[in-house]
Amino acid sequence: MRQLDFMGKRRIAFIVSIVLTIVSIAALAILHLNLGLDFTGGTVVELHYAVAPSLDDIRTLLANSGFENFQVQTFGATDEILVRLQQTFDNDVGNQVVSALSSGGAQIDLVRAEFVGAQVGDQLRDQSGLGMLIALAGVAVYVAFRFQYKFALCAIISLGHDVLIVLGLFALFQWEFDLTVLAGIMAVIGYSLNDTIIVYDRIRENIRLSRSDDLAQIFNEAINQTLSRTLATSGTTLLVLFALFFLGGDMIHNFSISLILGIVAGTFSSIYVAAALLIVFKLERQDLIPVKKENVEGEEELP
Amino acid sequence: MLNRYPLWKYLLILIVCVVGVIYALPNLYPQDPAVQISTTNGSLDSQQLDRVTQALSDDDIQVKSAAMTGNNTALIRLSNAEQQLPARDVVDNLLDNDYTVALNLADSTPSWLTSLSATPMKLGLDLRGGVHFLLEVDMEAAVKQRLEATASAIRADLRDQRIRYRSTDVDDNALHLEFANAEDRDAARAQISQTFNEFQFENRDEGRRAFLDMTLTEQAIKDIQDYAVQQNLTTIRNRVNELGVSEPLVQRQGPSRIVVELPGVQDTAEAKRIVGATANLEFRLEARPDAPDSETETFPFRNDPQRTATLSRDVIITGDRVSSASQGFDQNGRPQVNINLDGTGGSLMNQATRTNIGRNMAVLYIDHSTETRTVTRGGKQVEERIPTTSRSIISLATVQSALSNRFRITGLDSPTEASELALLLRSGSLAAPIYFVQERTIGPSLGAQNIQRGIFSVIVGGLLVIAFMLIRYKAFGVIANAALAVNLVLLIAAMSLLGATLTLPGIAGIVLTLGMAVDANVLIYERIREELRRKTPAQQAIHAGYGRAFTSIVDANLTTLLVAVVLFSIGTGPIKGFAVTLSLGILTSMFTGILVSRALVNLSIGGKPVKKLWI
């Protein structure tokens, strides 16, 4: 089978990764995430019009009815309208919006109305950040326990890299970041980790089997051996995600985007970042082969 | 060498699969839109049911079946979901107030499945339509209310013991009593400290004034808050049941929040009014003309704010002592509420009225409400809540004779108000005010659309994966696809068994699981291919492939499971649904990917001397 020299090109991969990470951090710092209702608090009302309306008419109608600080946009189709309100929810704001808008003679159905208190949003934001950190820490402990701390460190860096890039792209394109996207990113952590562990597992196995000290060569072999698996699994997962993206409807649109981006980034990082970092962190054969075990084997060979 | 499993392994796998199929089956039977009738104090029989079905068919509403489901409940299944709302209105108009008519989705699971307690998955609000509320219990108010009640009890106690006090005062976590001199205070302290041991007592002197400070202990505050949330939970549950919603969810979330989910409800305004209502009653005697100001309070009348009456500060009983209440009319056709008190309430009322015949007793209507407004403070938007409590007298009448545990109150504006008050008295009052901090209303059309799209993407995603596996792994692809199908069945069975709620992100989780579930098989097959390239004999290659891939599969899946568990613990509602699906999917895919696919391989070619593998 053809061997691709992944480790030889690791410098290029590092540059790509670093550039992407910097762009992501810059996007997050300058543009910020376009946080959804779940995190900011506020009110969203989704309406279905019998006939596609003009957005300007809606804005005028709402302004005339005394609403302030609102945004009007189409949601999916031109006859689906999303109205965002900053004002605090009072009893039945959904119906108020409907009655304000139908005063223009349009036929409207209330599809959904959501209200989130600012306090709940703040709390959720803290909780989500904390949850992500706990997940990463838990993963690090597990990998350190099953492999070795250098593996844990590299796995965490590569996971952080994936999460940062997805977040950065969401900030860059100002896609709405809501609770489902958060769930998507957590799933990306799980998925990308899955990939990384498979590569690490092979690296560990090959280091134990081989007598060579050329780690780059061993890594290359491990990556090549797992490459078809990595691509096959990413492939099937991407297939179903595209099915979700195109067919799943608007409510999980951004969720699918986050997963698609995350899986592409995760596949890349488990090939390049996670393994190549092990070289940077100077992984050695001794890190994986317990001294005691070698002695036992040595004794067996003596007679 | 040959690849064989011992018989018990095959049997075990077979049993798991059969159980999986049985418990996944109920999901294939669609739920019927239905109207549920129940009654608490009326009677319901099949004749009445016939009358109802007749009325429905007169209104061109197609009834699929109508049956009694219990002594006092009946279920009318409809053929058409769009006729559910009109059907409810027809039934509601036909029956009087004693009956509760609710929208329902009735399972059509065959009885042999129900007898195995196999039930379909519950659908989340985003798939079914309905209202979701998140309520916050006002903890400070809970403590304050308790302090005020304690103050009232202490005043009564001190008066009984003839210990003179000047005033009682309530602040954050403490109660301050003022006495004329230190002797009175010491006597009071000796008297009170036995009864109220949840307080820390401290003497304080300011000049010639003697104070007794009673501070609640940390534990007592925690207990009070916990009690408040529990009590509110019970009350809200009672109220939601009165609303006649089928399968409502009322659940505590975190230390101070309560989630309420009402599937099928579209009228949020009514639901909010009933769930969040804080109206309560207090019965007090009118103050004697010579009573000192510190013992009296003046309130306006509810239907004539100009008129006022001065009442004693001491409460005889509150609405919490009401055991049942119903709305009715007096001789003049004015609305009234008939009240039955519980044992303690009855004797308290009897005691108070027996010794006070000829005095006036007032019924005080209390309504706590809060206005929430967003203000900008220090460049940051903050929500500010201004609690207001309105107390007004709804009736003031002379006590003619000692009252017992049954009586009626009048002075209400309308029959609606009377029946709402009766409902609130029946379901109990809220132990502390609540605020709505989150609300979601999902229309039924959106729910139906979400299900449709969800199922469609599961099918398309599944087919794509199946095609991919067939092309890539040929004969082994068939085995992987069989394992995938078993996986889907087991996942659905596990979700149904655990009573998990299916949400839209949950469906996304299933789709994602489908994509990732083949991973175990991909790993194994790639290993087998590798072995074959090294010219390992076929059976040995299969053995080595399954053996070597095992640790990778376990390591990779356990870490993903870890992340899913974290997601479950921080997530709420739909996100929890996603985490549950993901976790269950990881477990079932490990089972099917490793055991089921191996069993299939062993069964089909494991016992034969094969030369070449179609992989």
From TrEMBL, chain A:
<dbReference type="InterPro" id="IPR048634">
    <property type="entry name" value="SecD_SecF_C"/>
</dbReference>
<dbReference type="InterPro" id="IPR055344">
    <property type="entry name" value="SecD_SecF_C_bact"/>
</dbReference>
<feature type="transmembrane region" description="Helical">
    <location>
        <begin position="12"/>
        <end position="33"/>
    </location>
</feature>
<feature type="domain" description="Protein export membrane protein SecD/SecF C-terminal">
    <location>
        <begin position="102"/>
        <end position="282"/>
    </location>
</feature>
<feature type="transmembrane region" description="Helical">
    <location>
        <begin position="231"/>
        <end position="249"/>
    </location>
</feature>
<dbReference type="InterPro" id="IPR022813">
    <property type="entry name" value="SecD/SecF_arch_bac"/>
</dbReference>
<dbReference type="InterPro" id="IPR022646">
    <property type="entry name" value="SecD/SecF_CS"/>
</dbReference>
<comment type="similarity">
    <text>Belongs to the SecD/SecF family. SecF subfamily.</text>
</comment>
<feature type="transmembrane region" description="Helical">
    <location>
        <begin position="152"/>
        <end position="173"/>
    </location>
</feature>
<keyword id="KW-1133">Transmembrane helix</keyword>
<keyword id="KW-1003">Cell membrane</keyword>
<dbReference type="Pfam" id="PF07549">
    <property type="entry name" value="Sec_GG"/>
</dbReference>
<dbReference type="InterPro" id="IPR005665">
    <property type="entry name" value="SecF_bac"/>
</dbReference>
<comment type="subunit">
    <text>Forms a complex with SecD. Part of the essential Sec protein translocation apparatus which comprises SecA, SecYEG and auxiliary proteins SecDF-YajC and YidC.</text>
</comment>
<protein>
    <recommendedName>
        <fullName>Protein-export membrane protein SecF</fullName>
    </recommendedName>
</protein>
<keyword id="KW-0811">Translocation</keyword>
<keyword id="KW-0653">Protein transport</keyword>
<comment type="function">
    <text>Part of the Sec protein translocase complex. Interacts with the SecYEG preprotein conducting channel. SecDF uses the proton motive force (PMF) to complete protein translocation after the ATP-dependent function of SecA.</text>
</comment>
<dbReference type="InterPro" id="IPR022645">
    <property type="entry name" value="SecD/SecF_bac"/>
</dbReference>
<keyword id="KW-0812">Transmembrane</keyword>
<feature type="transmembrane region" description="Helical">
    <location>
        <begin position="128"/>
        <end position="145"/>
    </location>
</feature>
<feature type="transmembrane region" description="Helical">
    <location>
        <begin position="179"/>
        <end position="200"/>
    </location>
</feature>
TrEMBL record, chain B:
<dbReference type="InterPro" id="IPR027398">
    <property type="entry name" value="SecD-TM"/>
</dbReference>
<feature type="domain" description="Protein translocase subunit SecDF P1">
    <location>
        <begin position="229"/>
        <end position="286"/>
    </location>
</feature>
<feature type="transmembrane region" description="Helical">
    <location>
        <begin position="7"/>
        <end position="25"/>
    </location>
</feature>
<dbReference type="InterPro" id="IPR022646">
    <property type="entry name" value="SecD/SecF_CS"/>
</dbReference>
<keyword id="KW-1133">Transmembrane helix</keyword>
<feature type="domain" description="Protein export membrane protein SecD/SecF C-terminal">
    <location>
        <begin position="437"/>
        <end position="601"/>
    </location>
</feature>
<protein>
    <recommendedName>
        <fullName>Protein translocase subunit SecD</fullName>
    </recommendedName>
</protein>
<keyword id="KW-0811">Translocation</keyword>
<dbReference type="InterPro" id="IPR048631">
    <property type="entry name" value="SecD_1st"/>
</dbReference>
<feature type="transmembrane region" description="Helical">
    <location>
        <begin position="478"/>
        <end position="498"/>
    </location>
</feature>
<keyword id="KW-1003">Cell membrane</keyword>
<feature type="domain" description="SecD export protein N-terminal TM">
    <location>
        <begin position="2"/>
        <end position="103"/>
    </location>
</feature>
<keyword id="KW-0653">Protein transport</keyword>
<feature type="transmembrane region" description="Helical">
    <location>
        <begin position="577"/>
        <end position="601"/>
    </location>
</feature>
<feature type="transmembrane region" description="Helical">
    <location>
        <begin position="546"/>
        <end position="571"/>
    </location>
</feature>
<comment type="similarity">
    <text>Belongs to the SecD/SecF family. SecD subfamily.</text>
</comment>
<keyword id="KW-0813">Transport</keyword>
<keyword id="KW-0812">Transmembrane</keyword>
<dbReference type="InterPro" id="IPR054384">
    <property type="entry name" value="SecDF_P1_head"/>
</dbReference>
<dbReference type="InterPro" id="IPR022813">
    <property type="entry name" value="SecD/SecF_arch_bac"/>
</dbReference>
<dbReference type="Pfam" id="PF02355">
    <property type="entry name" value="SecD_SecF_C"/>
</dbReference>
<keyword id="KW-0472">Membrane</keyword>
